[in-house]
Write a structure and sequence with these properties.
The complex is a heterodimer of chains A (641) and B (250).
Chain A lengths: L14 H8 L5 H4 L3 E5 L3 H13 L2 E5 L17 E2 L11 H11 L6 H21 L24 E2 L5 H18 L3 E4 L2 E9 L2 E9 L5 E5 L2 E4 L20 H8 L4 E2 L4 E7 L22 E5 L17 E2 L1 H5 L9 H13 L11 E4 L1 H7 L1 H19 L8 E10 L2 E2 L12 E3 L17 H21 L13 H19 L6 H16 L5 H21 L11 H25 L23 H4 L1 E11 L1 E10 L14
Parallel strand pairs in A: 1-2, 1-9, 2-5, 9-17
Antiparallel strand pairs in A: 3-4, 6-7, 7-8, 10-16, 10-18, 11-15, 12-13, 12-14, 14-15, 18-19
Chain B lengths: L2 E7 L8 E7 L8 H14 L21 E3 L2 E2 L21 E6 L7 E3 L2 E2 L2 H10 L19 H11 L6 H5 L6 H13 L7 H14 L10 H5 L7 H16 L4
The chains are: A alpha+beta (641), B alpha+beta (250).
């Protein structure tokens, strides 16, 4: 297979402009003769659907929630990066580009990241014009805050609800197009298969989650903007409904899956409290601007109340280990540091899996009121969940699965190896390498949807004949409907003794232990044996109540969990194959003397793109490699000291 | 702790529903309310019974998908908290807890505790936006907005679109939801050009969906998980009156 990234030639800073000037166009009168399906209505999906409809294409947009406004982008708290340099602190497009490449541990595609940094400034303009109420200074200009992995202040925010406000901006733009009849919205509808005919993506098969009806939808191009796959781990900061089924079904239809082992573990989440737990809640990274992370210096002190531990007996380990970035060290590094101090027995809280995030210094420096203004809603959430008041006692935090950098492989145009199948936002692999910096997910989702896809999809459609899309009763659609129906009936007919959720918990624990914050050959090899066995048991012994022709939430979940087994196997296979440590992928065998990730650029400076070859006992995949060639930056050992 | 649940069960939109009793045993007070329902549903599924259908997604109080009425109160007993952020420590051992869907003519029940709130989406589609196509925006700092105005707009924009305001209102009015969006956009300079058109169209859409009228009982604000102020309703009424006067039908 030829993995052609289609990165334009020319100097890095001119690639995107040059590409835009050369890309083929669809004439305005012809645009309405093309149909585009957008699956997902988060930042990437909603912004793409709205922008494509504004251009004149006919768009169909799908989401599994009851309204496009509920997509999980809404839960992003801290902010969105942009190289505006409004603070005059030395920021630039190049610096944002470089921080993102370095933050990703030199495992992202250079040209994509540069484009991301370029369009970041347009995103802020667009969102301001939509009425997104960003934080302001008294003079009326936009305010900024700092975020992990950067030494400039370039993060724009709307209290602790930046994702909500940006998503509502995109949702409102989408709503305008729905009202105008340019977008047809399908809420409570879940994509269960991608339809490929004559070598190109021609549509999807989806289930109406209210009636249970399985239907075909055809189009000239399909965009998947369905988010990440972190819920394979069961406990995560994802919404309960976030799932990998759309990208996994596309993968099974030929789309390559890139870098599945690059998972992000966020350092500041509320620790696990019990077996019944359904999700973990993030405490925004922005808290690390003013909060100080510490554990007791001595193991014996870890059970004592924090106030009783004297200043000289506290280990502010991030400030000690990474003096120049301190508490704002990137996520992968902070998470591993927390794991290390807990492994040493210095963790706090009932489980011993926790570290303190302490605001007492900030409160005495800035006053209660200012801290409340900056983080009040986060302190409220913390109190709702733990019953503790973080103004008085330090928060307890621990790392949790939060984001997946891997995803479907795409070229520079965000098109997968299946022609006509585009992938945007967290669902693709393109911009964050092996680790994502804070406030960059919102940036990427909106960059893809507002400013990349509207151009690149046009370039693809210009090569396609305008007019009617493939009829929905075409043989490939009929076959796909049949396959989806068979699978649904199979799930319902096993009639075993265990619920799908109980399998999900077991799979999640296994993944977290063997392929979480630290991985090694032995653990991954064990996981690669255990996962297929568990999948086998699932298909023998799962019990899914109800029937397929009704609103059946247990059936929805069972279908998603069935896909996680296959995906989990690929995550572990990728982690085993990548014999180096980089970003969020930490192999214990490959570390520096100081315990930092040790890359092997000679052997592993490539994107792993996996091709699905079928299930036979265990899963089978072929590995394709896209070499990462850096024209502008020099690959170096990442240092935040 | 143990509690007894009286849960509304209803197969579909057209069918008749009824309360069903289920016991929830050996609960941890630190469980969330929805995790308690998960535990009950796991048991029902193993017993081959239909689990209780309920809407939820983010489980951190921001997506607005969860929507139960608990002991007569939308989103339950805690002030400014959504159902998903309600914890069992808010109840006592041995309590009987009544769980119903949000009830309103404009929110038909789809199944058990799941309702259809697409009427809210249609109100936004009628005018809850700034008409600014992608690519046509000036520089972000070219539109100065004072901190006070930005903060006020943010207060209104914090609405999560859950519909608790409607469920709490004896008239089933959606005034708080609509006023929050109208106010956010009408306060900001970016939204001024469409100010009149927006409020007229959104109010018209609200009425067409079958929501009731506002009689100023403020039950909506009390039930709102984000504490959206009823002052925005007054603000919208003023915008509406002005728009009506300025745009008298010919």
């Amino acid at each position: 297979m030829n993995l052609e990234s289609r990165t334009p030639s020319g100097p890095l800073a001119q690639k995107w402009d040059r590409h835009r000037a050369e890309i083929k166009l669809v004439n305005p009168a012809n645009k309405r003769k093309y149909e585009i399906i957008v699956v997902g209505s988060g930042l990437a999906g909603a912004s793409a659907a709205a922008s494509l409809a504004e251009l004149g294409y006919r768009v169909k947009c799908f989401c599994f929630q009851d309204s496009p406004r509920r997509a999980h982008s809404i839960a992003a708290q801290g902010g969105i990066n942009a190289a505006k340099n409004y603070q005059n602190d030395g920021d630039s497009v190049y610096r944002l580009f470089y921080d993102t490449i370095k933050g990703g541990d030199f495992r992202a595609r250079e040209a994509n990241v540069y484009r991301l940094a370029q369009v970041s400034v347009n995103i802020i303009d667009q969102c301001v014009a939509q009425g997104v109420p960003f934080a302001r200074e008294y003079g009326g200009t936009l305010a900024n805050r700092s975020f992990g992995g950067a030494q400039v202040s370039r993060t724009f925010y709307a209290r602790g609800q930046t994702g909500q406000q940006l998503l509502l901006g995109a949702y409102q733009a989408l709503s305008r197009q729905i009202g105008a009849g340019a977008v047809k919205m399908f809420p409570r509808t879940e994509m269960l298969d991608l339809v490929v005919a004559d070598g190109a993506a021609r549509g999807i098969v989806a289930r109406d989650l209210v009636s249970g009806k399985i239907e075909a939808h055809s189009a000239h191009a399909v965009v998947l903007a369905t988010g990440g796959y972190g819920n394979a781990y069961n406990l995560s900061t994802y919404a309960r409904g976030s799932n990998a089924t759309a990208i996994w079904r596309a993968h099974r239809k030929g789309a390559l899956f890139a870098n599945p082992c690059y998972t992000q573990i966020h350092p500041t989440c509320i620790p696990v409290s019990g077996d019944y737990q359904s999700k973990l809640t993030l405490m925004s990274e922005s808290l690390r601007n003013d909060g100080r992370v510490w554990v007791p210096k001595r193991k014996e002190d870890s059970g004592k109340p924090p106030a009783s531990i004297a200043e000289e007996d506290r280990d502010y380990y991030l400030e000690r280990l990474y003096p120049s970035f301190g508490n704002l060290a990137p996520r992968d590094i902070s998470s591993r540091a927390a794991k290390r101090v807990c492994d040493e027995g210095r963790g706090v809280g009932p489980s011993g899996l926790g570290v303190y995030l302490d605001f007492s210094d900030a409160i005495s420096r800035l006053g209660h009121k200012v801290v409340e203004e900056r983080y009040g809603n986060l302190f409220d959430i913390y109190k709702e969940i733990t019953g503790e008041n973080a103004y008085d006692v330090p928060m307890r935090i621990y790392p949790a699965i939060h984001y997946t950098m891997g995803g479907l492989w795409v070229d520079y145009n965000l098109m997968s190896n299946v022609p006509g199948l585009f992938v945007a936002g967290e669902a693709n692999f393109s911009d964050h390498g092996a680790n994502r910096l804070g406030a960059s997910a919102l940036m990427q989702g909106l960059a893809d949807g507002y400013f990349v896809l509207p151009y690149t999809i046009g370039g693809y459609l210009a090569t396609q004949k305008p007019g009617a899309a493939l009829p929905a009763d075409h043989a490939e659609f009929r076959k796909s409907i049949e396959d989806v129906g068979t699978r649904t009936r199979r799930l319902l007919s096993v009639n075993g003794s265990r619920t799908a959720d109980s399998f999900h918990k077991q799979l999640g624990r296994l993944l977290w232990e063997k392929c979480g914050m630290a991985r090694n050959r032995q653990g991954l090899t064990e996981a690669l044996k255990a996962i297929p066995a568990l999948r086998e048991e699932f298909w023998q012994n799962v019990r899914v109540p109800g029937c397929g022709e009704e609103l059946n939430q247990a059936l929805e979940r069972a279908g998603r969990i069935a896909d996680y087994f296959e995906l989990a196997e690929l995550i572990c296979l990728d982690a085993l194959t990548r014999e180096e440590s980089c970003g969020g992928h930490f192999r214990e065998e490959f570390q520096t003397d100081e315990g930092e990730a040790l890359r092997d650029d000679e052997k592993f400076a490539f994107v792993s793109a996996w091709e699905f070859k079928g299930l036979n006992g265990s899963g089978h995949w072929d590995l394709h490699k896209e070499p990462l060639a850096y024209e502008e930056v020099h690959m170096s050992q990442r240092s935040y000291k | 702790m143990n509690v007894s649940l009286r849960v509304w069960r209803q197969k579909g939109p057209g069918t008749q529903g009824c309360f069903e009793t289920h016991e929830a045993r050996d609960l941890n007070p630190d469980m969330s309310f929805l995790e308690m329902l998960d535990v009950v549903n796991e048991r029902l599924a193993v017993e081959g019974k239909d689990p209780i259908a309920f809407d939820h997604d983010c489980r951190e109080g921001i997506c607005g998908m969860c929507s139960c009425v608990i002991n007569g109160e939308p989103h339950g007993p805690e002030f400014k908290v959504a159902t998903c952020q309600t914890y069992m420590r808010s109840f006592r051992d041995g309590d009987t807890i009544t769980i119903e869907p949000f009830r309103s003519r404009a929110f038909p029940v789809l199944r058990d505790l799941v309702v259809n709130r697409s009427s809210f989406d249609r109100i936004i589609q009628a005018g809850g936006f700034v008409s600014v196509p992608t690519g046509s925006a000036p520089d972000g700092n070219a539109i100065p907005v004072s901190k006070e105005i930005a903060d006020l707009a943010m207060d209104a924009a914090a609405c999560i679109g859950c519909g608790a305001c409607v469920a709490a209102c004896k008239n089933g009015s959606a005034m708080l939801f609509v006023a929050a969006k109208v106010s956010q956009l009408n306060i900001l300079p970016q939204g001024k050009p469409e100010k009149d058109r927006r409020v007229l169209r959104m109010v018209q859409a609200m009425d067409a969906e079958g929501f009731g009228n506002c009689s100023n009982t403020y039950a909506c604000e009390a039930a709102c998980p984000k504490g959206i102020s009823v002052n925005f309703i007054a603000r919208m009424n003023r915008d509406y009156a002005v728009a009506l006067l300025k745009n008298k039908p010919a």
